[in-house]
Prior knowledge:
- The structure holds two protein chains of two kinds.
- Chain A is an all-alpha fold.
- Chain A has helices spanning 2-30, 33-56, 68-98, 102-107, 115-119, 121-138, 150-178, 183-195, 207-213, 217-229, 241-273.
- Chain B has helices spanning 20-25, 60-67, 89-95, 112-122, 127-140, 156-168, 186-203, 214-220, 238-243, 257-268, 291-297, 315-324; strands at residues 6-15, 34-44, 49-53, 75-80, 83-84, 96-99, 174-178, 206-210, 223-228, 231-237, 249-254, 273-279, 282-287, 305-311.
Amino acid sequence: MALVDRSLGRFRRIAQVAGAFFRIDWIDTTNYPLALVMRFLNAFVPIVTYLFVAQLVSDNGPDVGFDYYTFVVIGIVTMGALAASLNSFGNSMLRLVTQGQLEMFLVEPVPWRTLPFAMMTMPGLMAVVMAVATLIASVPLGASYRVSAIPSAFVILMLGLVATLAIGIAGASVKILSKRADPVLALYSIAASILSGAFYPVELLPKWLQTLSWAIPHTYVIQALRRLLMPEGEVLPGPDTSFAIVALILFCLVTYPIALWIFGRTLEYGRKIGALSGY
Amino acid sequence: MSEPIVAIEHLGKVYEPFSRSMRLLLRTSVKEPVVALDDVSLEVHPGQTMAVLGPNGAGKSTLFRVLTGLTTPTTGHATVMGLDATRDSAKVRRLIGFMPAENRTLLLRHSCRENLAFHGRLQGIPESELHDRIDETLQAVGLYEARDRIGFALSSGMLARLMLARAILHEPTVLILDEPTSAVDPLGAFELISMIQRIAVERNLAVLISSHRLDEVEMLNDQVVLLNRGRVVFSGHLSAMTAQARRPRIEIVAEDEAAAGKLSATLNDVAGVDAMQLEGSSVFVTTDLTIDGVLQTLNGFGDLIVSVGRASPRLRDVLGEMLGASPEET
């Protein structure tokens, strides 16, 4: 009973901290409506661009589910959503460092493990809303989706956001100390752009790169979403959706303890050397 | 005497130069180990205000950083209400209200109320109490009327008061104020210090405050710790500090301002007179000479002099004396 009470108390505390960050981010977002509109417009640019690129792709075979435009839109939207999860925490931490606010946050009695999740609530919500809005906007342009698969797609997208946040936490750890250099996220982003198959089927890559591509969560999320959402998704090569879910859960189980350990060690080291406030 | 709320024992902090691998990531100017704190011990009791004084780089901010858990000590330890500031950092941070020197630690695009609500939630104040407590705190610092104004629309003095409100919202036991008046005009600074004094008395807080404004320290008229190069040069009551002045300060009251001008011009050329200050018809002289010695130098001006006597030493002179000597000598 005591354990349940303690767990409940801890959950309430995490919810309160997450709520605090969400409210402050919400106010920040809604008080600058033009900036919000421009963000959405920016997100729509690639789906318009690829409408014309898709006209050049003559091979609409099973590798792209017989519809290159829908295939690439799902890739672009997923990349955008996962980029938010990957970069938001690091960017938020860097903003706190440069604005001189990080130390003030660390003076608050907030368990540091809750920070990445608490600070991700609003960016996470925005990533999902923008993904949905972009997919809807692509329908009149010729993309088609299976509406019945939306709940499963949502689960996959959430798992993908959680999995990439683990990499984001590791990257943010380096950013807290370095202030500028960001080798973890930079290298991962390069790898994800090439290996995840956002713009082309993974099967086009050389065999050895194909092996690497299945080592990153992006590939599983993009493939699973295409299989679920595309009307002819079942014909796409690669693992099925349940395999993708298991792979993403396993990825989280392995990477979270490592990422949180790195984050904790970074804060400790930053405290010791006095590098949390400089910029 | 009550138990100390803040107890610091033999605290030391050395910032080591970064390793080669760290230098790939981060720019640093530290080439040799920097001793920020060296064997610092002090106690602050409930209701006491301790002014932490010292030149830039004396170790004031590092001392506060150790107490707030922002850095770890190399040696010794600091406790707040018996809790170790490093080991029990999360609990200690609930007991501390911290006001940093820079107002950009506030969310300047958000209103006073939004700033305090955010801080209150991070501090774990229940939602049912939060809004009443915010209103009470804003009233206590005189910002209730400006509660919905955003940070960028507030003056420096108002921002300082908002930072004070943030520091006291969660009803801490200890207030740590790092140069709270650094961005505030003299009148605003006076009001802020009065406010801090009032709140500290009302809530029986232990207060640690650093400041470069000596008039504020005189206004607080409580405990003082003087740091220099990380070491404690003096610790005790302000009156005990000023009593340590080795060179006396003599006040010569002249008939009028013109007479005071003549006297100061004469004293200006006298050996042994180190500093002189004209205040209306009074001349204040810091000197190794005795009163008789001063009067002898003013022989012939007796009709211009109303009275001669010892004046209390200026805090600036006392600090200058103490910081000029090495810690071992004091």
